[in-house]
Amino acid sequence: MAADPYRYFRLEARELLDQCAQTVLELEKGGPAATLVQQLLRLVHTLKGAARVVRQAGIADGAHAIEDALAPLRDATAGVTRDALGPILDHLDSIDHQLRMLSPVEPVASAAANSLPDEPWRAVRADVVEMDMVLDGVAETHGLLTRLRDAERGLEQAQRLAEVLKAQLAVQRHHGGASERLLAIADELQRKVGTVERGLGSTVDQMDRELQQLRDAAERLRLVPAGSLFTVLERTALDAARTLGKQVKFRAEGDEMRLDSHMLGAIQSALIQLIRNAVAHGIEAADVRRRAGKPEIGDVGISISRRGRRVVFECRDDGGGLDLESIRRVASRRGVSGPDVRHADASALVQLLLRGGITTSETVTEVSGRGIGLDVVRAAIERLGGEVVVRTERGWGTVFELVVPSSLAALEVLIVEAGGSGAIAIPLDAVRGTVRIGAGDILPSAPGTAVLYGQQAVTFMALSTILGGAHQSVRDRSSMVLLAGADGLAAIGVDRLLGTANLVVRPLPDNLHVSAVVAGVAFDAEGNPQLILDPDGIVSAVRHSAPGSSDIVPATARTRILVIDDSLTTRMLEQSILESAGYEVDVALSAEEGLKAAHRTRYALFLVDVEMPGMDGFTFVEQVRADPALHEIPAILVTSRAAPEDLQRGRAVGSQGYMIKSEFDQSRLLALIKPLVR
Q: Same domain, yes or no, for 307 and 282?
């Protein structure tokens, strides 16, 4: 039996049909007509595009007919009558019937269906929150596994003690001071401890392997290759060109990136629409292109890349560019008049297009002409919290950039070590080269220093300085990494190159404002954090800062700090910041666990979350102040609670600092810590 080519289309189409039905019901109840009609147009437009991709002409024609029925209602102000909704409901019923006929168990016999790839775009519908909980749970469990290894080392010590005890009893027995029974007990103790030690070691190793496999599987479910979109987008471009009698060539870049399935699913409809628009509105007819000195075959493409903490989806064409004057005329005809329209630049006019209802097409076709497409793009980007950037040149083409915040993503990275800060990751696609350098390779330069790479002098700075450490001189046998960023090239000095890896990058919490050189954080197999650096931020910092100009205050000694927070992301981010500044850091998941750690190890400072299950941060500080062994250790509270009474309570219980998460800044945090640990 052939692979079912409709298994993902059915999911998407069913969801769109349900939303259409709900919108029609709201129209029947007298809801805001203009808003609901526009919403319904977006939904059926998306359904039509999806149906065209899987060659379901009947469903696409039904969606097109609904668009015809809705077009006169777009400017309705007095509501929509039931008579007007009747044909729309009939078409929805017909589409629903056709969708039900796409049975997953029936053999697919048509040539069109058999031409589909076995692995179309995976419209993943997994609950993102639950998947994140799985990943967080695996990371937490792996962290607990580290403690089991500590217990394993404790058993090794117990084994050695048992051996010492047995030897001592053997000596005493020789002198008549110990019985055979005591010696037998010591011998049995040694055997049992050895058995437990071996069993625990084997179990821990097996748990480590199993957890790593579980984590890899969970991450694969959460992340899908960006290239999964490309087959659908290429087919969209070719189908649109065939319908309009044009010729296009499709290019795609960035297929190796693995991104959050939720992000790709949400942006798919927007990219399909942009590709259709590029063919319909951008690419000229063959004779027009020939007269303009262009190849008869138009060029349409998509590229996906990371830009710091964001992902950029770029859709481009080499067509005629946006006709700004036509957009102005249509906008005036639609009632959007005034000096803003007459004198608006390309960006402002594109924003009008994104609002929907404006089209420069003279006729309505299956591909374009209703002014709905860019409204679909706008709605998708707004849901993702992103923005649309447009560049156009009349006669030479248009580029649409959809810039959205990064969620999870898999990256190939170079792992380096700098200034004793532990492992730090740099996206590998930004690395242009690595070489060994010594003090003699550093050249004086304004405003700081440079290194010679080939025949080019490249601005240089030690990575430890960029991350907030004191200015570090280059030692012999150091390494230099050449990076490419938006501002050009820059070189950074590191202590060691540790190799390459594929890491899953997590976004930074919205309420934590950290240095622009940090793009995200990843966790290794044991749950330890690794900072992921932003090449653009690094290059900018190197090229625009003199050595030692960082406003981050470094730690001059390996002072030990205890971070207490029940949030994995916040806990690990704070640990990364502190370790990058030169501090030794331990972490605790709760205030109760923090108190136990404080009695085992001497800390210079506690960094404590306020809102935690069980004992809260206020109570933790109170107990520390009441404990003779701990009362002199300073504590800083970190919380989202900013009410005056909370600040007063923090002072009353004896905290030396209070940092509000919405105002979190790594420079401010380190500056707050420095005077407390000297």
A: yes
The domain that contains 576 carries what CATH number? 3.40.50.2300
64-74 per-position pLDDT tens digit: 888 888 888 87
User: Is residue 388 situated within a structural domain?
Assistant: no
Residue 32 within any structural domain of the chain: yes
Residues 475-500 have a mean pLDDT of 82
Q: What is the CATH number of the domain that holds 366?
A: 3.30.565.10
> Strands 248-253 and 657-660: what pairing?
unpaired
User: What's the confidence (pLDDT) of residue 390?
Assistant: 85
Beta bridge partners of 20: none
User: What are the tens digits of pLDDT across the range 144-156?
Assistant: 776 677 777 777 7
| DSSP notation for 54-116 | TT-HHHHHHHHHHHHHHGGGTT-SS---HHHHHHHHHHHHHHHHHHHHS-TTS----HHHHTS
CA distance 528 to 188: 39
> Is there a single domain that holds both residue 433 and residue 511?
yes
DSSP 8-class letter at 506: B
The CB density around residue 398, as the number of other CB atoms within 10 Å, is 24
Query: What is the rounded distance in angstroms from the CA atom of residue 118 to the CA atom of residue 5?
Result: 7
- Its pTM stands at 0.51
CA-based nearest residue to 238, from 423, 108, 383, 52: 52
Do residues 676 and 657 make contact, with C-beta atoms less than 8 angstroms apart?
A: yes
Check whether residue 282 and residue 377 sit in a common domain.
yes
Compute the distance between CA of residue 453 and CA of residue 425 in angstroms, rounded to an integer: 22
Burial of 108: CB neighbours in 10 Å, binned 0-12, 13-18, 19+ = middle
Range of the structural domain that residue 104 is part of: 7-114
pLDDT digits (tens, 9 = 90+) for 188-200: 777 777 777 777 7
